[in-house]
Design goal:
about 525 residues; alpha+beta; 9-stranded antiparallel beta sheet
Amino acid sequence: MNLSHPALAQTEKSWRKIGLKAKLLGAVVLTIGSTALIVHLPWNWTSQRNVDSVVTQVNDDITQGTVREVDNIFSHVESTHLLIKLMFANLIDLNSPNDRETFYLNLLTSRADFSWLEFGFSNGDFFGANRRQSDEISLIQRDWNPTTRETQKTTRIYQILPTGRKLLDTEITQEKYYAPQRPWYQDAVNRPNKLVWSDVYVFRTSKQPGINASQTFFQDGQLVGVASIAFELNRISDYLRTLQNNPNEGESTATSQRNQPGRGSIFIINSKGEIIALTNAEETVYTVVDQDTVRLKTLNEATDPLLKIAYATAQKHQVNFANLESRWDLSNPNNELGETFYISFSPLNRLDWIVGTVIPESIYLQEINRNKRILAVIVISFIGAAATLALYLTDRVIAAPILSITNAANEIESGEFDKLCLDKVIDRADELGQLARVFQNMAREVYSREERLKQQVQQLQIEIDHSKRQKQVREIVETDFFQNLQAKARVMRRRVNPIEPETKKPNPPSGEKTPSEPEAPPPDPAPSTPEQTETDA
């Protein structure tokens, strides 16, 4: 590491100050945390891919289920028209009120998805069956009076029971209703011998928007009238709510939990973006302009926030409803509701209808996020327990022996060999025990060497002091000053004893010094200065 930079040097210095226990604990926590992170990231990525896959599958299931339901309604309408045509042509007399009304009543009872079964005669008369409630059906007969240009309407209300039907009430009123002027009648006349689907319009009786499938009926080449089958759009909305609320048989609990009311939206629009049906029962999908005209609300006019998100997403990705040929799967992570939504648009292949879905990601991530929270608690608890256990083990198995050896090294450094104690570590059979034994032997050798060195130093100091004194004496004796002092001392002695004869002393034996080479007297402890010597003399 380059420590030329002050910050790096400070970091290195701070790191060195961290204790061994803290480093070991940090290493354990880092290892466990890294392992948890390595496990969490792929799991999170996989869960997101699974959510995308599940959303795609659910959208496909919703689309296919809606397509099947709409196809069933349309297929039932087509097959019922064929049945009506065959029955009126061969078995039922149109001029017999009892036969045709019984036939229509039984037919409507068996078709729960139909709202109206109607037949308008070319002379203005009309008869039909209308579903008022799930267990009530009204039979309506209108007789046209060309003079007054009004019809007499006779309504018989029946309650449908498991054992049969029960007449509840009969009503007779006058109204202006001329069947050949109705939209469903005119559409069929304009395209004879074909099943014609009308645009969405409001039903006169129920004041609900619906759609008609009408077809002309001829006898002997003459137009007798037009048969019509109608169903209200709320029938489709009810089915969409059922599709949203009730999971199919065999679906998992998680799938059942995510298909709860208010958890997303399913809707049907046409190529103009007008809402045909939707799951939100509080959203009004039409506005009645006059008695018989309804203007459907467009997707961008909806107040439902989920429909707003669907419209904004379609605009962002430039989805062309008029030319939609395949399903679009989109997402909108940035919106006013603050969460990611999955949006899909798929053609129904019936008329120009399109089924759309808006599914919040939280439906699918709720279980995943709950598992994440559980996993986080488990991981944190595991890290805490592992760190505590690791701290205890490292302190007992690694840190304590190492710190004992470190303390022993500090004691050796301070010279306190008597406090050195590694008995607990020496008894270990592992590498730390071997290190302690080697260290103790080394410490004893160091102590012995230090004692020997002290003795040698003391002896050497004595010898050095003696040699130093001898050298100092030689230096003093050999100086000119000291020689002059000796000469002056001899002169002074002769002056004091002038009569002392100078006798020649005999030669000393071999190995002894001659008198002419007197031995220098030992130096005084405090030699006098030359001035003091002269004064004394």
